[in-house]
Amino acid sequence: MVTLEEIAGRLVDRKDYDFTVTKEHWEPQRADDYVLPAFTIKESTAKGAETKLRNKLSKVLTFIDFVEHKRFKTGCTIIPISVTNKDNLSIWKNEKGVSRAIAFMIEIGLISIENDRFQFGAYYEKDNKSKYYRYYKENEDKVKQYCKDHNIQAFIVQNKLYPIDEIKNVHSEIDKSKVRFASRLKLVKPAELSKAEFDEQLTLCLYENYPGLHFYIQKANEINEKYYKDYPKFRIRFQPNIIWSDDGRYVNRIGIRATNSMSNLKKEQRASVLKTYGFTLEKDINASVPRMTLSLNMGHWIEEDTDIYELIYRQMEPTGTFTQEVREAIKKLHMRAYFDAGDKSAGHHTWLSMKQDEIERQDVCDKMAEFRNAIIQAEGGKLYGSDIFYVESCVYLMTLYDLLASGHRVWQVYDCFYSTGDEDQELFEYMISNGVRINFEEFLKVYWIS
Q1: pLDDT in tens, 84-122
Q2: Residue among 252, 212, 259 nearest 235 (CA)
Q3: Which residues contact 13 (CB under 8 A, 6 or more apart)?
Q4: Of 91, 311, 387, 411, which residue is most buried, by most CB within 10 angstroms?
């Protein structure tokens, strides 16, 4: 019989299987041979022209902050700029706005076209479409200097909020009860609504079905305005991510997770960020998704001295030897088994991601079915799908808020907190663990509807 260790070792894609997080898989390319475009700002004395130019440059400054970790520190970098990328849409609202902004950045000399054809695959977003551009660090410096000379500040991106009292006006054809954070939906758009109107209506349904959502989005905006005004790369994006079917007739997925523009930096890239901002303290929550799940099912926070990965193993092997290799296998396979629709699909999708020589498909399917059942039992009898990222985000968002309010500068990456502070590492870990416990139990008491 195949083991979990063997399955984990045979995985080919080796990526986290969480169904929600968009991860970049391109690498920036350096253009060694290039001609620097002229840096040109066209000023006008026409009525309203100055304000319009300042607004444009304010948003370009925010874009510059977002791409800082994607471009080389000097010279020209070839990068994709997507009209559907979430960061870009958060600045310019829609694809047309992004397209107009790209044209403006070409006009002033910040970028130029590398490839004029739309390409797919620069990001993992299903509907991504990008052109590749040359991005010039020399002209970035000139944009920044111009803005400094003219007292132009970077645009502060905020998460969109709709008035809660608009819930009463949700279209009668929409079944509110079916509007959930989930990866397998079919929410058909009423004919008289535009896609944007339907997105708004679905968000209002989410406010009703998740009573804390509106409050926590407000908190994210407060963090961005109050604590991250001068640190745009750390600003929190916390919005429902509504995904449409290819034919645009219905919504087939709604996800949510608190992120920022640097959430997807690779581990080896984080070191330079820690050094730049003086982050000397670090704490991540052990086994975050399984711990949140068991805590929800038990009705109280499960402290980190409970080894949930071993609990899972003991469901499968009550008297076996729990080794580090077994732990790593369970950790690697957990998200696959947790988020797939059921026993059969978990095994099938894992099989498709494996080296398949000298191993039977049915053995893999049987082992993954056993593994998924062990997860359900060890984590309290119920799994929460995409809802778990909503819960996780709310709890960690308030923990971040408390830490920032106490005077720390913090960068949060999902379940990990990097921070400045005078505390030693042991005290900092206690602060985070205690804060997460308090904020989880407050969330459970006030906002959670099971």
Answers
A1: 887 888 899 888 999 999 999 999 999 999 987 655 444
A2: 259
A3: 353
A4: 411
What DSSP state is assigned to residue 165?
Answer: G
The Cα–Cα gap between 304 and 54 comes to 50
Only one residue has tokens 């700029």, namely 81
In this structure, what DSSP letter does residue 380 have? T
Other C-beta atoms lying within 10 Å of the C-beta of residue 441: 15
Tokens at 35, concatenated:
């001609």
Residue 147's contacts (CB-CB under 8 Å, 6 or more residues apart) are: 57, 58, 61, 153
**Which among 47, 52, 42, 202 is positioned nearest to 109, based on CA atoms?**
42
Which candidate, 84, 64, 72, 197, places its Cα nearest to that of 143?
64
Which residues does 263 contact at the CB level (< 8 Å), separation at least 6?
Answer: 21, 413, 414
**Residue 176: what residue type?**
K
How far is the C-alpha of 436 from the C-alpha of 302, rounded, in Å? 11
Calculate helix-pair angle for 288-298, 308-316, nearest 10 degrees: 80
| Cα 334–Cα 335–Cα 341 angle in degrees, nearest 5 | 110
Which single residue is written with the structure tokens 């308090």?
A: 438
Judged on CB neighbours under 10 Å (0-12, 13-18, 19+), 123 is: buried
From residue 252, give the alpha-carbon distance in Å to each of 140, 241, 295, 358.
39, 11, 29, 37
What are the CB-based long-range contacts (under 8 Å, 24+) for 265-272?
265/69, 265/413, 269/69, 270/413, 270/418
Q: Say what the pLDDT of residue 24 is.
A: 45
**Angle between the N-to-C axes of helices 387-405 and 288-298, in degrees from 0 to 180, rounded to the nearest 10:** 100
Which amino acid does the sequence have at 164? Answer: I
Q: Could you give the C-alpha distances from 131 to 20, 37, 70, 78, 111, in angstroms and in order?
A: 24, 19, 15, 10, 12
The amino acid sitting at 141 is D
Residue 259, phi then psi, degrees to nearest 5: -140, 175
Separation CA 294–CA 380 (nearest Å): 5
Residue range 143-175, pLDDT digits in tens: 999 999 999 999 988 899 999 999 999 999 999
Cβ-contact 277, 230 below 8 angstroms: no
pTM of the prediction? 0.84
CA angle (372, 286, 7) in 5-degree steps: 35
How many angstroms separate the CA atoms of 429 and 281, rounded?
9
The encoded tokens of residue 251 equal 């919504």
